Amino acid sequence: MMNGISAAIGLIAALGGFSGSANASTAPVSKAEAQKVAIERVVKEEMSARGIPGLQITIVRHDKIVFAGAYGMANIAAATPVTDRTVFSFNSISKAFAGVAAMQLVEAGKLDLDAPIAVYLKDLPVLWRGITVRQVMTHISGLPEIVDDNMRLLDGAEPDAAWAQVQELPVLFPAGTKFDYTQTNYVVMGKIIENVTGGTFSDYV
Question: Which residues, including other chains, have CB under 8 Å from residue 174's CB and lie 6 or more apart?
Answer without folding.
Answer: 142
